[in-house]
Design goal:
The complex is a heterodimer of chains A (about 800) and B (about 220). With about 800 residues, chain A is of the alpha+beta class. Chain A has three domains: about 350 residues, no CATH class; about 180 residues, no CATH class; about 180 residues, no CATH class. Chain A is about 50% helix and about 15% strand. In chain A, α12 runs antiparallel to α13 and α22 runs parallel beside α24. The radius of gyration of chain A is 34 Å and the shape is elongated. Chain B has a single domain, classed as Rossmann fold (3-Layer(aba) Sandwich). In chain B, β4 and β5 form a beta hairpin. The longest helix of chain B has 16 residues. Chain B is globular, with a radius of gyration of 18 Å. The two termini of chain B are about 20 Å apart. Classes of the chains: A alpha+beta (about 800), B alpha/beta (about 220). Chains A and B meet through α1, α11 and α14 of A and α2 and α3 of B.
Chain lengths: ~800, ~220
């Protein structure tokens, strides 16, 4: 019996080849997208699963009353250690680390790398396995470094490199050899070796013991309560709840931390297990929800289509149902037959979806910035998902024909009479309407997401990012180092290809040093102060980035010795300090909280976007590097149009001036694009969703139109005999859809407006929500639908009515 | 075998009853070959459908092989006609997606007959109607007469006691129609009761008894 059902199902598919193809393919696209999203979500949920006992391991997080006083993922340097020392009954172990960027060399290979320098408990507390080396002792000796297999391949070309050495530079320019004591299998995504968020995110391949901090000059900071930029983890003893740590934390803060910091700071503990989804104000979670909803709707559309087409087809099966009933088939048997049929059809779709998954996986991985699992890596339990989905959709799609049609009286069925025909048309039209609504919402949203991302990338930032490259320079944070770097800069400036060169601690990528200071007028007290971000630059910074002056001048443009009390403000800072006219600020005196010296305002620059456009421009001030010897980047404004030649010239100069440093340049454009990587991902995902939604909705229209034509062939014949023109016949089919399209737009527009409006609320600078995209999308869908109708109906409209009447 | 007493069937249209069958009293014995005749709309097909239990009457009694049909539950009724009645239609009503073989086999599938036995029965039937060579063809590949042969073979496969045929030759030319009638006659001689609806006097003449209908009543 089952074989018989299967056979007839297949023959039906084959008989209606076009329909079957549309139906199977439409559903397959929806299913493939769903599978990809499910795979993405499961990948996101698995982050940190490779960290052992991740429910007992807690990240100590900070919440600052004044934002920008510190990162939320870092805290007071000695906190975890102090907790363990004072409350060993609660804490089993701890791990803290600093993040350092420095130049790592092996022979003539030099790269700028992120180093994770911290307590030697690292390997034991995370449980990340070593491929080579001894977990217990690897980080126990001074001058040891544990690297990942990726780093080992990069420097040595092989993975078994225990005992080899790497040379690492310190900030004072000295070099030291470090011995590789362990090689770690590249860890799967986790928030301990890939820490931080946004632009501060670092993925680390080098792990050093805290004892090496002395070499980097960071050893004192690692134990100082004043340092709030160290990442701290504590492992609680089994059964200890994080709330039990609040009291100890307060006690320790009271003993060690100044009152103003203490009042500003609250500490909370987040289990490593949950951290990823919560980090970055729940970015991962929001992505999961957004993609999940889109996938759900696309799947819904695909299923609706599938059901719509199945229902349409089933009417032509009415006669067969009648015959089967007369032959003695009972309802249950007929219901089962239809359910088997639609399940077989769904299974086909699922197979195609799996093939699509294989071929589009890489594309989607790149798009989402996350490696999606290959099918072969699916654990057994995952296969339950496509199987359950197949059975579910198969049943849903088979339900209508199974129950409604098998209920018809056999005498009527034989005559092909369907009592509920009227109701059904209405029902199917509302299903199509729902698809239109979804497609319009997805489409319109995509238009605005696109506009917003383009706006980010093209908006006038207040400075010129074009033709600017930045390169990390070796650190020698001494007055001599600044002197040396100034000489090097001047050397570069002599190149014909370089319009201007500048070195600084920051570049306008949104990552400030986060040394926020309270500034106030020298004539007032600190209660009237403002919090401003600092930028440490040389005097060429404004000219390299073409930041115009609102008043005064940018340090001493001639170079040489700079005024040690000189400070430059941006317009916002000047305004907040009470100088509405920038000119009025020139020559005025400022004080920094906690600093006895008075600073003199030498200039005010026009406002520019230092940070991402999600945020409003904040008050900022510039200090010359001579007075704060900190620098990380050299920026070049390239002169000629021949970028490649310019780069080559700079590189040549670089290798003679800085032989030990990698010439690892980045275009400012790319750096900025990275600032908006989340938005770019959303943009790409929404574009993909739009394409899929459009395909599905148009397939839906195509199938409904085709079925409608099949059903109305005789009607068209009669109308033509009675004198209807071709246009009138086309209008007959167009009318059916015009109402659906108008209603769908009426429903979709307010919904999309609401969604877009909410999304744009996240951004300080945003595009206008205008009506034009709504109208365009609505019109475009209408035109596409009209084209499909035209394409399908033109034949029948022109056909000789005699033939269509004869078929009856 | 069949006993109808005061059977009436109607539809309501604008408050008045339009009778499809009016006070039908009819008795048919096993082994008869009855032809029902009458003009279009006189109720022939409705009568056949009621007898075949595809349709219910609004009034009256119907006894089939000693059982009161109208008092049976749907399932019992289906069981009754499944095993005792075979249908032959004017439009053949074969399933287009099934081959000749499979079409004939279908009723057996619904009677839970085992595969081996099914094969034997279908093979017998193909043999009997001389259509072994056509068993793998689809209905659309056959002529009307051949399709009706398959339709009859399908009706007979479960060896019913009664064959109900609604204008079995209506779509056939006269030569094909003659062949079908010959087959019916032979079947009748083998003991199968046959009731056919027909327009043709000549076909009706093959039967042992003629029932004339007019305006929902039996005239004679």
């Amino acid at each position: 019996m089952f074989k018989n059902y299967l056979k007839i199902a297949l023959r039906h598919l084959w008989k209606n080849k076009t329909f079957s193809a549309i139906n199977i393919f439409g559903l397959a696209i929806g299913l493939a997208f769903t599978l990809l999203v499910v795979s993405y979500i499961s990948g996101e949920l698995k982050v940190n699963n490779n960290i052992q006992e991740n429910d007992r391991l807690f990240l100590i997080q900070s919440k600052w009353k004044t934002p920008d006083m510190g990162y939320d993922f870092a805290t007071l340097a000695p906190l975890a250690k102090a907790l363990k020392d004072n409350y060993p009954g609660l804490i089993e172990n701890y791990y803290r680390h600093d993040g350092i960027t420095s130049i790592v060399s092996k022979d003539d290979k030099h790269f700028s790398e992120e180093l994770q320098v911290g307590d030697e408990s690292f390997l034991r507390i995370t449980g990340l396995p070593l491929l080579y080396g001894n977990v217990a002792t690897a980080l126990g000796q001074p001058d040891a470094v544990v690297i990942t297999t990726a780093a080992a391949r990069k420097y040595f070309g092989k993975t078994n490199v225990v005992g080899q050495t790497l040379t690492i530079q310190s900030f004072s320019g000295t070099k030291q050899d470090f011995m590789v004591t362990g090689v770690m299998q590249n860890p799967a995504m986790n928030t301990i070796t890939s820490w931080g968020n946004g632009i501060n995110k670092g993925t680390n391949d080098f792990f050093l013991p805290a004892s090496t901090l002395r070499f980097f000059g960071r050893d004192k900071g690692f134990e100082a309560w004043q340092n709030a930029f160290i990442i701290n983890y504590v492992k609680l003893r089994p059964g200890v709840r994080p709330e039990q740590l609040q009291q100890p934390v307060e006690q320790l803060m009271k003993q060690n931390v100044a009152a103003d910091v203490r009042n500003n700071l609250s500490i909370f503990f987040t289990p490593v297990k949950d951290y990823y989804l919560q980090s970055n104000s729940g970015l991962a979670k929001r992505m999961i929800y957004a993609l999940g909803f889109v996938a759900l709707f696309i799947l819904l559309m695909a299923i609706i289509n599938f059901i719509n087409i199945s229902v349409g087809n089933s009417v032509s099966r009415l006669k067969e149902i009648g015959v089967r009933k007369v032959m003695g088939g009972n309802r249950q048997q007929l219901i089962l037959q239809f359910l088997v049929e639609s399940t077989v059809l769904t299974a086909f779709s699922m197979l195609i979806a799996l093939v699509l998954y294989i071929f589009t996986r890489n594309f989607f991985s790149t798009m989402l910035g996350k490696e999606l699992m290959p099918l072969t890596d699916f654990p057994g339990i995952y296969w339950a998902f496509p199987i359950i989905l197949t059975l579910l959709i198969g049943t849903l799609a088979g339900l209508y024909p199974a129950f409604i049609l098998s209920r018809q009286r056999s005498v009527d069925s034989l005559k092909g009479k369907l009592e509920t025909a009227k109701e059904k048309i209405w029902f199917r039209h509302s299903l199509i309407g729902l698809q239109f609504v979804t497609a319009i919402i997805v489409f319109v949203s995509t238009v605005f997401i696109n506009r917003q991302v383009n706006f980010f990338l093209t908006k006038d930032l207040g400075y010129k990012k074009d033709q600017v490259i930045t390169v990390k320079v070796p650190r020698d944070w001494t007055p001599q180092g600044v002197q040396h770097m100034t000489t090097i800069r001047n050397e570069f400036a002599t190149l014909r290809e370089v319009a201007s060169a500048s070195f600084s601690f920051e570049i306008p990528d949104g990552a400030s040093s986060n040394t926020n200071n309270t500034l106030y007028r020298a004539s007032q007290d600190s209660a009237h102060g403002i919090i401003a971000e600092s930028l440490f630059t040389d005097e060429r910074f404004a000219s390299t980035y073409v930041i115009p002056m609102a008043a005064g001048r940018f340090f001493n443009p001639d170079g040489g010795i700079q005024d040690s009390s000189g400070v430059i403000l941006n317009e916002t800072a000047a305004k907040e300090l009470g100088w509405n006219i920038p000119q009025a600020a020139i020559g005025q005196q400022l004080r920094f909280q906690g600093n006895p010296n008075v600073a003199t305002i030498g200039g005010v620059v026009k406002d520019f976007h230092f940070g991402p456009l999600q945020e409003a421009i904040r008050p900022m001030y510039f200090i010359h590097v001579q007075n704060a010897p900190l620098f990380r980047y050299m920026s070049f404004k390239i002169n000629t149009d021949n970028t490649a030649a310019s780069l080559a010239a700079i590189k040549k100069k670089w290798t003679t001036l800085l032989p030990d440093a990698p010439f690892d340049y980045k275009f400012m454009d790319d750096t900025l694009a990275k600032l908006y990587s989340t938005e770019t991902q959303i943009k790409k995902a929404s574009e993909a969703a739009t394409v899929i939604a459009l395909i599905i909705v148009l397939l839906g229209v195509l199938s409904v139109v085709t079925q409608s034509i099949t059903k109305r062939t005789k009607e068209v014949g009669i109308r033509k005999v009675l004198g209807a023109s071709v246009l009138q016949i086309l209008g007959l089919f167009g009318k059916e859809f015009s109402i659906v399209i108008i209603l769908s737009n009426a429903v979709a527009w307010p919904l999309s407006w609401f969604l877009i409006h909410r999304w744009l609320m996240n951004y300080a600078y945003k595009v206008e929500v205008s009506l034009v995209p709504f109208i365009c999308v609505g019109t475009m869908l209408a035109i596409l639908t009209a084209l499909i109708i035209l394409f399908r109906t033109i034949n029948i409209a022109f056909s000789n009515p005699v033939t269509s009447l004869r078929t009856e | 075998m069949i006993k109808l007493e005061h059977v009436s069937k109607w539809v309501s249209q604008g408050g008045t009853r339009i009778f499809l069958l009016k006070d039908i009293n009819l008795e048919i014995n096993e082994g008869e070959f009855v032809s029902v005749m009458g003009p279009s709309g006189s109720g022939k097909s409705t009568l056949l459908n009621v007898i075949g239990m595809l349709d219910e009457a609004d009034e009256g009694n119907y006894t089939f092989l000693g059982r009161e049909v109208f008092k049976l539950k749907e399932k019992q009724r289906a069981g009754l006609y499944k095993s005792h009645i075979g249908f032959v239609f004017q439009a053949y009503h074969l399933i287009d997606e099934l081959t000749v073989y499979e079409n004939i086999e279908t009723p057996l599938l619904y009677q839970d007959i085992r595969s081996g036995e099914r094969k034997a029965l279908v093979a017998d039937m193909l043999d009997k109607f001389n259509i072994v060579g056509k068993k793998d063809l689809f209905p659309t590949q056959l002529s009307g007469g051949q399709q009706q042969l398959v339709g009859i073979a399908r009706a007979l496969i479960a060896s019913p006691k009664l064959i109900l045929a609604d204008e079995p030759t209506g779509n056939l030319n006269s030569r094909q129609g003659e062949e079908i009638m010959e087959i019916f006659k032979k079947l009748n001689e083998e003991g199968v009761t046959i009731i056919q609806v027909t327009h043709s006097e000549k076909n009706a003449a093959h039967g042992s008894r003629i029932i004339q209908m007019l305006d929902a009543r039996i005239e004679s």
